[in-house]
Amino acid sequence: MDFGYAPQLYPEEYRYTPEGSANTALPTPDQGALVAIIQQLHSSLDPRTVFACFGNTLGQYLPLAGIQAQFADLSFSWGRRSGVSLRRHLNTEAFPGSTLDYRLIEPLTPAQIRTLQTLESMLIQPLLNAISYQKMSEQAMFDSLTGLGNRHFYGQAIKNAVARANRHHDKLALIVLDLDNFKHLNDNFGHQFGDAVLRQFGALIKSAIRNTDQAFRIGGDEFVIIVRGELDSAAILCERVLAKLNKGGFFSRNRIHTSLGAAQILAGENQDNLYERADKALYQAKAAGRNCYRLSLDTQNT
Question: CDD domains under this entry (predicted)?
C-alpha cells in the first residue's frame, strides 16, 4: 500500500514548503516543544496526516528536504526526493525491518542526529495507531471476499452521491447486477467454487469501472456500481462488463453470465427509488434471456 501522495493532498498545515537552506540556524526542541509534538502526532488517525506532520515537524528542527519511509507493506512519502541521502533503520517490534530515507539540505551535525533520534521515537506509536485504525475501518467498509465496498459502505456512498447530485445537479446513475443462476452453481459445485466465482467477478468489476465509479457487493451475488455520469455512461460500463465476462477464460469455461440493470437519477429522487428502478431494469434483463442489460427509461420521478 502506497501512501506517497502529492504534497497538495496533505492538510494545509503539513504541506511541504522549502524554507530551509544550508547554514541556516535551526532550533533544538525543548521539553515543551516535545510535548506539543507528541500531542500533534496523536491528533490524527489518518496515516498520511501523521506522517506529513512528522515530516513538517522534522523540517522545523533539521535541514530536511524530504523523507520516504517503508513500514512492512506500507510506503509513505513527503517533500522532495533530492538532497543528501541518509537512510535509517527502525528495528521496532511494531515495524520490524522498517526504513526511513531522508533527503537533507546538508549533512546532520551530531546534535541534530540526537534530535532526529528523539523525534523518530515519537513517530512509531501514533503511526501504528493510525494504521491500525485504518485497517479496522477498511474491514468495516469492505467485503473481505471481493475487496469491493460492502452494504454498509454502499449505504453511505449512495446517500452522499444522491445528495450531491440533487444539490449540484450532477449526473449520476446506478447499476445493479448479479450472476445468472448463481444458486445452481453453488448447489452443484459447492460454496468454495462459488466463493471463487464471486472473487473473480469482483476483480472483473474492478477492472471495468473508471476511477470515478464505485463498486460494491451488497449481499450474496448481488453487486451495485455507482456511476458518475449519465445513463449512456452506465450503458457503456454494462457493455464493458459483459464483454469482459464473455471474452473467454474462467467465466466462459464455466458458462457463468451476468444480468445488469441501470437507472439515471431523476430530479429530487432518493436513493431507494433509484435502486428500485435499476433493480427493475435488472429483472427486465433476466426476462429478456439473461447475459444482457436493460436501462430504466423513466423520465419523471414518481
Answer: GGDEF
